[in-house]
Every structure is written in structure tokens, then in C-alpha cells.
Design brief:
The structure holds two protein chains of two kinds. By secondary structure, chain A is mainly β. Chain A has one domain: Immunoglobulins (Immunoglobulin-like, Sandwich), CATH 2.60.40.10. Chain A has no helices and eleven strands. In chain A, strands 2, 4, 5, 9, 10 and 11 form a six-stranded mixed sheet that branches. By secondary structure, chain B is mainly beta. Helices cover 0% and strands 53% of the residues of chain B. In chain B, the strands form two sheets. In chain B, strands 2, 4, 5, 6, 9, 10 and 11 form a seven-stranded mixed sheet that branches. Chain B has a four-stranded antiparallel sheet with strand order 1-3-8-7, with no helix packed on it. The model of chain B has no long low-confidence stretch (mean pLDDT 93). The chains are: A mainly beta, B mainly beta. Chains A and B meet through strand 4, strand 5, strand 9 and strand 10 of A and strand 4, strand 5, strand 9 and strand 10 of B.
């Protein structure tokens, strides 16, 4: 099955710093989503981005499907950005999302 | 708020017992997915239903079963519970296609088996 690798596994930032999270996947995908899991455990949709670039406020994401990777950019980080960021992909017509192991982000005031 | 609701939020039970987790999808969504998040296995897909029919199956144990009702809500039944079943169980829903669409996740049910 498809493999999803996220890097870095852990990241500590000072408030106001920028960061880039990476997701590599081993096969072609129909669906790629980025999620933020907050400290209360809730999974929050950030982007649905099987290809191309999207922006939402301080967050943006780019997926290069032909090279099998996606990047999540966080600018001017805030303490509320802390949590775990997951990338998840759907193999061709498989219906299920395969999650990476996540990047744990801590933003210090 | 994703629009997906799950009950209960927390559940504490004993080994050998049976529990039922409930999920209501977003209005208009036909697909319901169940995922399990545990410390050792991460987030794993269990099963998908589309408009009442099972469509895809993942790493779901035989002790677990699910169904989707005519009103599109879904239930996940966990029986003969073991300590290792302690986890956060998520339900997600998506629209008519059931694939290649955004999956929206509910708040989860945190299960603790003692």
C-alpha cells in the first residue's frame, strides 16, 4: 500500500516564526488533505489539495503530484498553532485516507 | 465545527464489554468513514459506508462491526473489548461521490477500556 512520510517529526518555534512541513507519498493519489489536531484531540481540516497551491490566511499548501510531495507553510506562527499536523492521502479509488505519522508543533510565546 | 457529530464524547468501560459509538454525518453527505487513533498505530481507517452500503474495509477487527442506517447516521459496535482497544475513534463524512472529496471529521469518541 501507499506510504506517507512526514517531516520533521517535531518542531519547536518562537511565536512569529515561519515554518514548512513536508509530506512525501509513494504513489499517485486522488485526494490529499492536511489536518491540524489541536490539544483537545479535534481534527480540523486545513486543506484539500491533491494538486496545486492554496492559501488560507497565514497558512498555505502546495502539492506537486508528479513529484509526490506536499508542503504546508505556516507564517507568523501563533501559540494556537500548536498541535499535530497530519497529511493524509487517498490511493486511486480506494476511498480510505492513509495518514502520515504527523509533525508535532510547539509554538512558544 | 465540521458538522459531523459523535456521541458519546467519552466512554469508560471494562474488558469484555460491548459499546456502541454513534455518528451523524454532515447534512447531505452520503459517505461515513470510521477511523481509530491509538498511540501505537496512529490514525487508521476502519470502514466506509456509502448510502447504507459497506464500500471499503480497512484494518477492522472481527470483534468490531458497523452499519449505516436509512437516515444516514452510523454506529460502530465494539465487542469483547480489550485493553488495546482504548483509543480515539473518529467518524468522518463526505459528499455524494464518496471518493476524491474532502472528508470532514467529527470530534471523536475517546474510549478507555479498564
Amino acid at each position: 500500500g501507499i506510504q506517507v512520510e512526514q517531516s520533521p517529526p517535531d518542531l519547536i518555534l518562537q511565536e512569529g516564526a515561519n515554518s514548512t512541513l513536508r509530506c512525501n507519498f509513494s504513489d499517485s493519489v486522488n485526494n490529499l488533505q492536511w489536518f491540524h489536531q489541536n490539544p483537545w484531540g479535534q481534527l480540523i481540516n486545513l486543506f484539500y489539495i491533491p494538486s496545486g497551491t492554496k492559501q488560507n490566511g497565514r497558512l498555505s499548501a502546495t502539492t506537486v503530484a508528479t513529484e509526490r510531495y506536499s508542503l504546508l507553510y505556516i507564517s507568523s506562527s501563533q501559540t494556537t498553532d500548536s498541535g499535530v499536523y497530519f497529511c493524509a492521502v487517498e490511493e486511486d479509488s480506494s476511498y480510505k485516507l492513509i495518514f502520515g505519522s504527523g509533525t508535532r508543533l510547539l509554538v512558544r510565546p | 465545527d465540521s458538522g459531523v457529530t459523535q456521541t458519546p464524547k467519552h466512554l469508560i468501560t471494562a474488558t469484555g464489554q460491548r459499546v456502541t459509538l454513534r455518528c451523524s454525518p454532515r447534512s447531505g453527505d452520503l459517505s461515513v468513514y470510521w477511523y481509530q487513533q491509538s498511540l501505537d498505530q496512529g490514525l487508521q481507517f476502519l470502514i466506509q459506508y456509502y448510502n447504507g452500503e459497506e464500500r471499503a474495509k480497512g484494518n477492522i477487527l472481527e470483534r468490531f462491526s458497523a452499519q449505516q442506517f436509512p437516515d444516514l447516521h452510523s454506529e460502530l459496535n465494539l465487542s469483547s473489548l480489550e485493553l488495546g482497544d482504548s483509543a480515539l475513534y473518529f467518524c468522518a463524512s463526505s459528499g455524494p461521490a464518496g471518493a476524491q472529496e474532502t472528508q470532514y471529521f467529527g470530534p471523536g469518541t475517546r474510549l478507555l477500556v479498564l
